[in-house]
Amino acid sequence: MKITIVGTGYVGLVTGTCFSDVGIDVTCVDIDTEKIRKLNQGEIPIYEPGLENMVSKNIDKKRLHFTTDIAAALKGCEAVFIAVGTPSDEDGSADLKHVIKVAEDIGKYMEDYLLIVTKSTVPVGTSDKVRKAVKEQLQKRGAAIPFDIASNPEFLKEGDAINDFLKPDRIVVGTDSPRAEELMGKLYKPFTLNGHPVIFMDVRSSEMTKYAANAMLATKISFINDIANLCEIIGANVNHVRKGIGSDSRIGNKFIYPGTGYGGSCFPKDVKALIRTAKENSYQLRVLQAVEDVNETQKSVLVRKMKQHYNDHLKGLKVAIWGLSFKPQTDDMREAPSQVIISSLLAEGAEVVVYDPVAIHEAKRLFGDKIEYAREQYETLLDADCLVIPTEWPEFRFPAFEVVKKLMKAPVIFDGRNIYDYGEMQKKGFRYYCIGIQTV
């Protein structure tokens, strides 16, 4: 079986590589010539554990190919996946120009029956636009080539994407075609051996499922952050509260860890897009609007704590920061709380020195020479007035605290992920601020 993936970003590259790993002949297409050149040499543009080795292995086995030529890639393939970006416009709506452009190109160059699958996260109704764009191009050519449309949203967690694809909780496919359903079932059969079947539904429900899933997870995060803020005010401990409610099977213990808010490429964009979709249909998603509002406020929670501790005088302070990516095991800084924290500190006149295991290159792209970059975590601490932790990388969990105290000008920590125990930190002589616990 031969398939084509258009787009070699996070979703497209993981999808194409994992399909090739089970023996499918996959060609990945992108308009970025330099990116394709590097991919053909086994160099990948993102950090995802295990992906680089899997890409190299399947290139060597000649099951994974990269090209800028979509016309050549479509020859002899049975299905083409659209996996290009859908960034947020200024009004929060998803920008579909890349998706529609790919659909037009498919209509221009397809020669035989194709199943056209939308893998990108798109608003409800996008598959209809894809179908229309393909039809218009075929009509211009005077070509009566049959095709089907399907929606196949991704549910990949950055940092664990390969495992998610190879052993999925669920595979959602939206289509109105028996032929498309049969082909998608065949494609995904190797990934359903863990007992989780492909869930088939209509196209619009499939498109909605992706947004609804991310919106629900974002809601849990903003909910626990709101509760954490109240816990601080009234003297409750959010860590105890979290365990108490998480033991209820109806709630569950995932995504109820308090912190500095969610970020990344999915939750912020998808929540905004769903809110916008509702507005366009004269409906207000009041809960989701509150979710977004809470999240934006929460990204500044550590800076607010710092201002309180330093009596609003942050100018001239040297601030060490551990962790820049929006979560561990990725170099993705899109919508990361660290961006808000760093920008706020710079605006207040503070000196910022940062460390992250993999996201330093992205920080340099965003901040340039406005901040300092350390080669390892302890280097940030030399003569630092305080330490700020926006991201809970595993290597930060058990530092040598005596070394930390010795290097710092003052033993003050602002922990945005509650990775240390408040009582223990007090015993060690630190002034420790975290989320959802009243400090004295």
Word description of this protein:
There is one protein chain. This protein is an alpha/beta fold and 440 residues long. The chain folds into three domains: 2-201, Rossmann fold (3-Layer(aba) Sandwich), CATH 3.40.50; 211-297, N-(1-d-carboxylethyl)-l-norvaline Dehydrogenase, domain 2, CATH 1.10.1040; 299-433, NAD(P)-binding Rossmann-like Domain (Rossmann fold), CATH 3.40.50.720. The chain is built from 17 helices and 14 strands. Strands 3-2-1-4-5-6 form a six-stranded parallel beta sheet, with helices on both faces. It has a six-stranded parallel beta sheet with strand order 11-10-9-12-13-14. A two-stranded parallel sheet has the order 7-8. It is elongated and about 75 Å long.
How does the overall form come out from the CA principal axes? elongated
**Known CATH architecture of the largest domain:** 3-Layer(aba) Sandwich
Radius of gyration (Å): 24 Å
Q: Can you tell me the residue ranges where pLDDT is under 50 for at least 5 consecutive residues?
A: none
CATH topology name of the largest domain: Rossmann fold
Biggest sheet strand line-up: 3-2-1-4-5-6
Strand content: 5-15%
Question: What attributes does this structure have?
Answer:
43% helix, 6-stranded parallel β-sheet, Rossmann fold, elongated, N-(1-d-carboxylethyl)-l-norvaline Dehydrogenase, domain 2, 13% strand, 3 domains, alpha/beta, 440 residues
In short:
By secondary structure, the chain is α/β, with parallel strands linked by helices. 43% of the residues lie in helices and 13% in strands. Strand 9 (318-322), helix 14 and strand 10 (351-355) form a beta-alpha-beta unit.
